[in-house]
Amino acid sequence: MPSSVIAKYSYDAPTEILRVIYVSGSVYDYLHVPASVYVDLKNARSKGTYLNTHIKGKFDYKKVS
């Protein structure tokens, strides 16, 4: 199901970085995200809701662009 918030996301397991590209064009790297959280995001019916509830405010992040 397409997200109205997230355009694309990817996960790098060795570094535990979840990269989220928002529909707005902003790119954020969420740091030290366990693989299980990434899997849950992939399986979530609403990616935006999952992101807001389980990732934002829970993990450090840096704005890439």
From TrEMBL:
Q: Could you tell me which InterPro entries the record lists for this protein?
A: KTSC_dom
What Pfam families does its record include?
Answer: KTSC
Describe the location of the KTSC domain by residue ranges: 3-59
Superkingdom of source: Bacteria
* Name listed for the protein in its UniProt record: KTSC domain-containing protein
